[in-house]
Amino acid sequence: MKLKYELIALDVDGTLLTDEHKLPASVKEAVREASEAGARIVLCTGRGPMGAFPVLEELELSGVLITHNGAATVRSENREILFQYDINKDDLGEFIAYCREHGIHYDVNTAYEMMVERVTEEAKAMYAHHKVVPLEANFDTDLPDGLVKFTLFGSKEQMDFVQSHWEKRPAQLQLIRSGDFFIDVQHPEASKGTALRQLAAELGVRREDILAIGNYYNDISMLEFAGLGIAMSNSPDAVKRAADLVAGSNNEGGVADALRKFAWTE
């Protein structure tokens, strides 16, 4: 058996992890097998590095991660930032005002720090699942430079409503639906696909030697860029259409089945 792909890009939530935010043993084993055979494993996630490092550690791996939907590509060993797409904090005023007015939870992120003005009980539980602890700040006075992401968190219905209104605004910053309960506001050029393209060029890896697996709208760009893009069966239809193949669900260890079926050759 020989690996077909030099780089394997894996989404985290809804792909590697179950809906209960657990890493199935079968998935860990399959990812480790590919890594030990020489594949470069790159987690590509909407999470920031601090929320992605625990997953990388559970896989017993280290290396480069594409985080914040491609807005920050970092190296785990020394926390070096390889690529970053900054947004102007002055452009966030209308988004902050909207969230305050409508009682929507939000946070602001640099590559490594997450800041909040307040935390609801629902948000506390969400942050605990992602293993991150946000810093409290006054967004009128304390926002630093180097921001990469503004995130809203709420019910699917609430996020659907916000998305339907915000999509009609002038596109100075882009909206990324990174999950049923999340909307991210970022630099218009930031995406997992763009970051994966940059990383591949840096490493000298051809796109046909890249396998990508994901499950949500923010994964479409990397599924389309990779030589083989695989969507999970729990993906929305638009994500499945953008992929070359469809694997099993995240709750059934679909990544393990996909890697063993498509990443290897006789």
TrEMBL record:
Source organism, top-level taxon: Bacteria
One Gene Ontology term of the molecular function aspect: phosphatase activity
InterPro entries, A to Z: Cof (IPR000150), HAD-like_sf (IPR036412), HAD-SF_hydro_IIB (IPR006379), HAD_sf (IPR023214)
Keyword terms, alphabetized: Hydrolase
Cellular component, GO annotation: cytosol
Keyword Hydrolase set for record: yes
A Pfam family matched in the record: Hydrolase_3
Designated name of the protein: Cof-type HAD-IIB family hydrolase
Organism of origin: Paenibacillus soyae
